[in-house]
Write a structure and sequence with these properties.
Elongation Factor Tu (Ef-tu), domain 3; OB fold (Dihydrolipoamide Acetyltransferase, E2P); seven-stranded antiparallel sheet; six-stranded antiparallel beta barrel; 8 helices; elongated
Amino acid sequence: MSRVLATIFVLGAITAVGVGGYVAGTRGMALPGLDRLHHAFMARTPVEAKAEPAEAAGPIAYYRHPDGEPVYAPEPRKTQDGRDFLPVRASEEISFDPPSAKPAQSAAAATEAERKLLYYRNPMGLPDTSPVPKKDWMGMDYLPVYAGEEADEKVIKLSPGRIQRSGVRSQAVVRQAISRPIRAPGTVQLDERRISVVATRSDAFIQEVAPITTGDRVVKGQRLVKIYSPEIAAASAQFVTELNAAGRGVPEGGARQRLENLGVPPEIVAEIERSRKVPLTINWPAPRDGIVLERNVVDGMRMASGESLFRLADISTIWVLADVPEMDLAAVRIGAPATISLRGRPGTTFSGKVGLIYPQVAEATRTTKVRIEIDNRDGMLLPNMYADVEIGSGDAALVLTVPDSAVIDTGERRVVILDLGEGRFEPREVKVGQRGDGMVAISEGVSESDRVVVSANFLIDAESNLKAALSGLGTPADGKPAEPKSSEAKP
């Protein structure tokens, strides 16, 4: 009963003080003892003490806006209304994240704490685990492994800081045509179809040789040599007789055919038919335009049937024979464009096309001859010149391609590292095709929407192999990791 009365008395006193304070405050009156009653009441009411912030120390890191706006400056600065930016020292928390991100970070930290710790693994990737924290022989802490981290054994997760320190860069898979030039040495050769040998099909005497020497250019029909051949003269006389007899109604015999069989040029046969005279000597003409490769006659000499008088070659079109290595032969096709550079004429190039791939591989050099036909402008290309050949290869079809640096070739398999975003990477085995221009075609394993790592992919591949090795250790049925043999080395 006394406690109830005391409570009523205290509530009445508080109400009286409140009413009196209100009246005094509105009328400007002072109530003696009111401040003492306020202090006594506050002393009985516990108030949570506010922690004083620690005094900032260290050098000034930057300056921030006095109103807390996300505006920062490396040097002292003023706002538009003339107020100074506030300095932020090194000991103070430096964060550019919006305040709303802190609760999310706290939630993530709480989730991290709630994860189940499975075991600790060796920091150097050795097959050594421990159920309790420990250090290796170099003093490095073993790394914790939590439940859920091994859900996907193929996916590697890296922190943003580690990605930045490692220099990881990725690039999208693109669809394009692969073109790989094949470079090979070559030599200039004559077109075998444009070489002619001037010879008679009967014994003959050289009465006069035209002033032509080896290397001179001749045109078709130009006189090379004047000859006398008894057999050709006899066939010409018979031909004239048959022509005269044909005028009297006698059918023509075989004299014309005999002259053709002796190789007499058609224009000389036509001249005999027109003049009806037997020529004692015949001016033997050049059968084509070209240069004189050989001259085998002199005035007054006797030539046996079939012996070569001159050897001519037309060099308006010429060949370049390139020695293509056996390993590049599959990429060369008939009609492929080729560019020829002369070693003796730097800066001068010729364009041509592959005309033939010779069906033989040289046993000593393991190369194959590839013939390229070129229009020899101005006669600059001469037989037996050295040339540098570049043959275009590749298919015009568009294929999926990645940079050469993205493919890790172990000898037994080819792997690329897919960038899945958010610090996640996955090794993917692929099948590669043709290479060229720093790119490699991928026939299986990736799609056009994927991104592949082109830099520091060996580090991620090593991390993947480490994770696979650790996952292969396994755990016993009780859920605790098996205690492997210690791999620590003695210093």
